[in-house]
């Protein structure tokens, strides 16, 4: 159902609104407490008027600022054509595109079988014509290592024979062909992250370029990132870059890039439930594919639920096709002495298998003719197998799959 608190109006951050009203509010009373303070000799106190004004301000703020979800997020319902993507000069004055033809061999139901995000657990959603956007706060920005890098990844090398900035991986990948999309199901965990400046994620990468400064990627999956979100919840995320993570791209909707079309899924919001060790397993299915007609890259969640798309003009090489697809886990190790204890996936090695290790299953790619096909040349590789490892396989039920992950620091990874 539509959410009862979603009055569609421009969102005014609380600190901006405070500046707008503070000049008309006597300094004799605190906006937070209503306590009386010392005033200048030429100021006349009118407690009843001030208290009335304070009540009016608080009532108005309650209309502007939506209630927080169970994970502490505030979700704003923003008119679709006013979302950050439409700040881009090439999209100004335009509207989101209609859905494209899906890849052949993909038979979606168009239904989300259950709510998978904490903010929508009570059945709330945004009205038609709007999209749910996780509100970015001042605290979010202050946690970032630098204002200019807020919402961006540090640069990482995608080649499997090099490492950069402490990024470590356990991935399955295909290369050597032309790829127009990829699909996988990933089980979701809540791995421990050692400190604010590290993260743990599991995702798909759709990649093109020379693996130098012109690297193009499209990314989607789940991540735990205390620096970006201020907590340790696993969160649904997207990412893109067209210059190897240097000046372009961002997470989620933190820059003009990804165009969201869905009014039920909040990118960057916490996922629930999660998998448990020796217990229930919860996975999410993701499909990224290139629209053969317009060339945009679309993202689908679950059984046919479209989330939105990356416009083709954001990219150079990905305007044509991808040359590599990766699936797997990534962490950041910020320690200079010894190894971090940040976990990847479930925090357990691949050899523990189902119910204990993390997995990707039903790995597929989209070919030049918009057909969804099984992988024929999946390779698996772990940068630091004593810390995080990976084991691949294939069977009739799961198709191409692999288990991956690990605890980080241990007796074999000191």
Q: What oligomerization state is this entry in? A: single chain
| Number of E-type strands | 18
State the helix count: 4
Strand content: 25-35%
Which value, in Å, is the CA radius of gyration? Answer: 23 Å
Helix/strand order? HHEEHEEEEHEEEEEEEEEEEE
Shape: globular
What is the first-to-last residue Cα distance? 51 Å
| Mean pLDDT figure | 85
Number of separate structural domains:
2
Largest sheet: 9 strands, antiparallel
The percentage helix is under 10%
Search tags:
414 residues; mainly beta; 2 domains; 9-stranded antiparallel β-sheet; 7-stranded antiparallel β-sheet; 9% helix; 29% strand
Give your account of this protein's structure.
- This protein has 414 residues and is mainly beta.
- It folds into two domains: 14-64, no CATH class; 75-405, no CATH class.
- The protein has helices at 14-22, 47-64, 138-143, 226-229, and strands at residues 75-79, 130-134, 167-179, 181-187, 200-208, 216-224, 235-241, 250-251, 259-260, 283-290, 297-301, 305-310, 322-332, 358-366, 372-374, 379-382, 389-395, 399-405.
- The longest helix is centred in the first third of the chain and has 18 residues, at 47-64.
């Amino acid at each position: 159902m539509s959410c009862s608190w979603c009055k569609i109006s421009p969102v005014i951050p609380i600190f901006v609104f405070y500046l707008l009203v503070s000049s008309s509010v006597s300094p004799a009373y605190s906006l937070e407490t209503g306590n009386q303070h010392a005033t200048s000799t030429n100021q006349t106190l009118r407690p009843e008027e001030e208290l009335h004004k304070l009540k009016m301000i608080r009532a108005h703020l309650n209309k502007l600022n939506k209630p927080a979800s169970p994970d502490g997020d505030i979700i704003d319902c923003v008119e679709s054509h006013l979302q950050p993507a439409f700040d881009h000069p090439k999209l100004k004055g335009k509207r989101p595109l209609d859905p494209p033809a899906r890849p052949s061999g993909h038979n979606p139901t168009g239904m989300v079988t259950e709510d998978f995000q904490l903010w929508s657990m009570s059945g709330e959603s945004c009205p038609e014509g709007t999209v749910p956007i996780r509100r970015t706060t001042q605290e979010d920005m202050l946690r970032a290592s630098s204002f200019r890098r807020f919402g961006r990844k540090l640069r990482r090398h995608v080649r499997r024979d090099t490492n950069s900035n402490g990024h470590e991986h356990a991935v399955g990948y295909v290369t050597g062909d032309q790829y127009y999309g990829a699909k996988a199901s990933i089980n979701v965990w809540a791995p421990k992250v050692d400190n604010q400046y590290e993260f743990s994620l599991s995702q798909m990468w759709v990649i093109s370029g020379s693996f130098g400064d012109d690297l193009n990627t499209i990314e989607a999956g789940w991540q735990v990132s205390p620096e970006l979100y201020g907590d340790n919840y696993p969160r649904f995320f997207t990412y893109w870059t067209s210059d190897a993570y240097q000046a372009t791209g961002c997470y989620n909707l933190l820059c003009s890039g990804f165009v969201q079309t869905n009014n039920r899924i909040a990118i960057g919001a916490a996922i629930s439930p999660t998998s448990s060790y020796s217990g229930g397993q919860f996975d999410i299915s993701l499909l990224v594919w290139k629209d053969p007609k317009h060339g945009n890259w679309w993202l689908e969640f679950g059984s046919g639920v479209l989330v939105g798309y990356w416009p083709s003009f954001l990219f150079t090489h990905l305007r044509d096709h991808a040359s590599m697809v990766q699936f797997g886990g990534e962490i950041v190790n910020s320690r200079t002495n010894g190894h971090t204890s940040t976990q990847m996936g479930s925090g357990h090695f691949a050899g523990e298998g189902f119910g204990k290790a993390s997995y990707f299953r039903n790995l597929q790619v989209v070919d030049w003719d918009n057909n969804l096909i099984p992988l024929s040349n999946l390779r698996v590789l772990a940068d630091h197998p004593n810390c995080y490892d990976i084991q691949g396989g294939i069977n009739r039920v799961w198709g191409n799959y692999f288990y991956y992950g690990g605890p980080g620091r241990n007796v074999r990874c000191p």
